[in-house]
Write a structure and sequence with these properties.
The structure is a homodimer of 319-residue chains.
Chain A lengths: L5 E6 L13 H20 L3 E6 L2 H13 L9 H26 L6 E3 L3 E3 L12 E7 L1 H11 L2 E6 L2 E6 L6 E2 L2 H9 L3 E3 L6 E6 L3 E4 L6 H12 L3 E6 L5 E2 L7 E2 L2 E3 H9 L8 H14 L6 E6 L3 H6 L4 E4 L2
Parallel strand pairs in A: 1-2, 1-12, 2-9, 3-9, 4-10, 12-16, 15-17
Antiparallel strand pairs in A: 4-8, 5-7, 6-7, 10-11, 13-14, 16-17
């Protein structure tokens, strides 16, 4: 694939959920409609999109429903929950973008692929679960879930616990050939929702889901690499990546090289829960790309088209 | 598409859930593994598969979780629930079939498309909801849901009620071009899960989901028509279609024409909840097909390959 118009767009949590909202389905569709207009601006620029998205609030609420109803109805395991939420969110994102493209007379269909992502059970992440999922638990609940369900929990504040699951590195997007074919055929695609459904390969029994969460920015970077695009965009809530964030000498960055990004990442400039994975994803993508002009752009969802043109956002390049 | 190997296989409820089971995820995967072996037998015969499936027990349980947890967490509307279950069940069916094909050295990937199906809000089904969804309600609950949530309910036994939703005719599979392209590219596809997510077109606001359930056999027939296959198979729990079912003069049918099928359907030989939609789907497919040799096969899931060869099952043809 050498289509310069093709870009991978990784949507941040704010694309679907706003912190001040309950997060119900009506609100999600409203937010998704706003996001669709930003994405359609990129299509107006001549771009063809492969879209990825997180699922944090949605999977949290999904697991909460599971838990509240557990006395009456069997629960769904983590990876099956991720598959469900890919379906629900993919339907919403594809539909709102299809509608917006139709309004703008772009003859494009947006399809959702249920996407599984290979991980390695020997990944050290499985020995050190770090990704919090689900609601805050008190100590009694944490103990109960540890003993009854084998959960691992972590004390996030004194007396407050959350379940943590491993966040292994994505190795391969299992549906990549089909995604590539669909893109070549002219479809816009929603893929790798929530980072993808983590699957591992067992020599005897084949592929099976694992209770883990793949970072969606790292999965998006892998997808961009496998599609061999020129550009990946991470759309989020801030205009630009900053160093010394929140300090008197905070500096917003317009451009950085991979070497500079890695140095700041190693210095702890980018927090693990937010900007860190985007920077790591950008580094992974750029290091793997053979294209000298490859770039990763991190910018505000509300200014996607301007970020693509370099008017805002942070651009990361090989050199 | 004129690939004679391509067949649409519509899986009945027994492919994933058995009546004597709780229906939990472990059981669903076990059943799905057994189903995968039957499907792989068809692949061994040289067939390429597009697979559809129902979602009755799964969507019922999904809605029950919604309902039990409604005091704590926003519920998901019907059509969004269908989208979720397409993701969850598609993941399972695609994974178990991918594994089985891998064991048999078929180099094929199975992908799941989130599938929306266009319906017409002027369809008379919207004036007469007939499809029961969710759990059995007592009279107080039925009254409460009618007044608070606008549900329509029907008394299924004295004092026992269920929510009913419209079951409109499927008009168009919105993702058909993408599905066709994926099939042409060599992928096996899971599509139209639960009959597809029903969507209607609003002149001002584009496509939007509607609270309805499309019959999965009718959706499968439409898919078979749009893919222009030679054969559709409806795999279910019985070996053959019967007339005078359960009576002393019950007769199992090896072959019938569309004209004969329609006559028996009109006579009420095939109940609405089970064999009726399969016969109607077969009629729809055969009447739309321009191929003189087109056939619909209704037979036992456990004998899929033999049914394809005509050793068992009921074959319906134009003449």
């Amino acid at each position: 694939m050498s289509d310069k118009r093709l870009i991978v767009v990784a949507l941040g949590g704010n694309a679907i959920s706003q912190p001040h909202q309950e997060g119900n389905v009506g609100e999600q569709f409203e937010n998704s409609n706003v996001t669709a207009r930003q994405l359609a601006d990129l299509v107006d620029q001549g771009h063809h999109l492969v879209i990825t998205h997180g699922n944090g609030p949605q999977i949290g609420n999904f697991l909460l429903r599971n838990e509240v109803a557990a006395g009456e109805i069997y629960p769904l395991p983590m990876e099956v929950a991720v598959a469900h939420v890919q379906g629900g969110m993919g339907f919403m994102i594809a539909q709102t973008l299809t509608n917006e493209l139709d309004r703008r007379k772009h003859d494009r269909v947006v399809n959702t692929f249920i996407t599984t992502v290979l991980v390695d059970l020997a990944d050290p992440a499985f020995l050190n679960p770090t990704k919090p999922v689900g609601r805050v638990l008190n100590q009694d609940e944490a103990v109960r879930y540890r003993y009854n369900d084998g959960w691992q929990t972590r004390e996030v504040e004194p007396g407050k616990f959350r379940r943590v699951v491993p966040s292994p590195n994505p190795i391969r997007i299992m549906e990549i050939d089909a995604i590539r074919r669909a893109v070549d055929g002219g479809d816009m695609i929603v893929a790798c929702g929530g980072g993808g459904i983590p699957v591992a390969r067992d020599p005897d029994n084949g592929l099976h889901g694992v209770a883990a969460v793949i970072d969606k920015d790292l999965a998006s970077a892998l997808l961009a690499t496998e599609l061999d695009v020129d550009t990946i965009m991470f759309l989020t809530a801030v205009d630009r990546v900053a160093v010394n964030f929140g300090k008197p000498d905070q500096r917003d960055i317009e451009h950085m090289t991979v070497a500079q990004a890695r140095q700041w990442l190693d210095e702890g400039q980018f927090p693990a829960g937010s900007m860190g994975p985007k920077i790591q994803g950008a580094i992974n993508f750029l290091e793997a790309s053979k294209k000298p002009g490859a770039s990763a752009i991190i910018g505000a969802l509300g200014k996607a088209a301007d970020a693509r043109k370099g008017k805002t956002g942070t651009r990361i390049t090989k050199a």
